[in-house]
Amino acid sequence: MTVVPESVVTETDEDRRTIAVVHAGLGQPSSTRLLADRLADATARELEALGHEVTVEVVELRDHGHAIVDAMLTGFPTGDLARAIETITQADGVIAVTPLFTTTYSGLFKSFVDILDKEALTGMPVLLGATGGTPRHSLALEYSLRPLFTYLRADVVTTSVFAATDDWAQAGGEEHDDGGSSLPQRIERAGRSLAGVVSARGEHAKPADPFSSTPSFLDLLGGD
After folding, report:
1. Is 179 left (phi over 0), alpha (psi -120 to 50) or beta?
2. 65: how many CB neighbours lie within 10 A of its CB?
3. 13-167+180-204, which class in CATH?
4. Does the predicted TM-score (pTM) go above 0.85?
5. How far apart are CA 26 and CA 43, in angstroms?
6. Where are the chain's structural domains?
7. How far is CA 15 from CA 4, 10, 49, 152, in A?
8. How do residues 86-122 score in pLDDT, each as one tens digit?
9. Closest by alpha carbon to 163, among 193, 137, 144?
10. Could you tell me if 36 and 95 are in contact, meaning their C-beta atoms sit under 8 angstroms apart?
């Protein structure tokens, strides 16, 4: 995984992919951050196997809590929050992970989504993850979180990952007694799903710069 300065542009830029990871974990350490990191690692490994250079950018919503509330009141995200939103919307793919409270996404996570422009994630490949205390809450990914991103017209990959407390205690990649996949196996499968979409998406799918064809002042003045 390589971190590349934005100012460096080479002939290999078309093979570079940026993954933005946004999570709403509240603690440090956080099982939500742990799941987000493992999903990012799995995705990056698969993209590298497909021949891409990968940059991973992490946005911790707990660091922007006050700014998110301010943006909800004013309608204008500023400062570090504005830069975090730009990181997410300009990425090639997004991994979004939230803890579940009362069987749905956290208030912090939803508040962040509420301040995004409704067109900001149109067509964006998104991998969903969630953490909670019991496997009984896993369906919240499908009846709560997935519809939220479908409404935003994101390209949500089929595979999502829920991690219950007991999942972290399992050893290695062993299967469950009921034949289901272990957490490491689900993470790897999800990473492959997102990587495949991001790899195929390519640079041409990024939003065009609306000012790219605007002439400079020097051009307007007829200077050399």
Report:
1. left
2. 16
3. alpha beta
4. no
5. 24
6. 13-167+180-204
7. 12, 10, 12, 27
8. 999 999 999 999 999 888 999 999 999 999 999 999 9
9. 137
10. yes
